[in-house]
Amino acid sequence: MKALLKLVNVRDPRRGGERKTHVFKEIVAIAILAKLSGAQTFNKMEDFGKIRREWLGTFLSLPHGIPSHDTFNRAIRAISEKDFEVRFRAWAEAMRADAAQFDAEKPQPQRLVAIDGKAVRRAGFKGKAPIIVGAWDERTGIALGQERVEEKSNEITAAPRLLKGIDIHETLDKGHGEDLSRARIGNAPQNLALMRRAVLNVFSRDAQGRGLRRCQKNAAWNPAYLEALLSDND
Questions:
Q1: E-strand stretches of 15-57
Q2: pTM for this predicted structure
Q3: How far apart are the C-alpha atoms of 178 and 114, rounded to whole Å?
Q4: For residues 66 and 57, is the Cβ–Cβ distance under 8 A?
Q5: CA 93 – CA 145 distance, rounded (Å)
Q6: What is the pLDDT along the chain (234 residues), one digit of tens a residue?
Q7: Residue 134: which region, alpha, beta or left (left: phi > 0; alpha: psi -120 to 50)?
Q8: How far is CA 71 from the centre of its chain?
């Protein structure tokens, strides 16, 4: 779990005078673990936490139990997208390097990075839906990072190369309900999209090569399976 805890060790955006019932990085950790188990809403994150409270308590302090769905909502929309992105990129690059070691003795092609742009529909924004550009390592399939396209800009200016990542793009749509995301405020759309990419990275290590939905069901049913995948990253 060490790698996961490093990923979620983002700056706590809550002000000094605000009530801090829960440890901020633990809120984010539970959210990611819930998404690994197939949770697509804040309510389901809360449900996951309550069902798996005993297991979560083996590596999280949980001073006041499991956060409510409203707390998950407020926390995820408040995370600094830049801070989260920096930590994600370092974590993803370590995963990519580890995956590449399996083929270290084989001749390697020039490294290619695929780029795709995705409009996050139903995100509660008036007018044009926000667009997030994702970068992927072509050989390992590891999601390397993402960037939000600024207003009055486009994907080409947000990424040095624009390539098509059709398979991974469709996986995000079908497995995570990205087009149905109802996150409405602050940095929630970007941060939830980054969590979805983290999910794909973790499940890329499934030894049996099972699809996303099967991996999510295994994670939901068997915490030991989820813990084993995350332990591989330590």
A1: none
A2: 0.70
A3: 19
A4: no
A5: 9
A6: 788 888 889 999 988 766 789 999 999 999 999 999 999 899 999 999 999 999 999 999 999 999 999 999 999 999 988 898 888 878 877 776 776 665 555 555 555 555 565 655 554 445 566 677 666 666 666 666 666 665 555 544 544 433 443 344 444 444 555 444 555 567 887 788 888 888 888 888 887 878 888 999 999 999 999 888 887 544
A7: beta
A8: 18
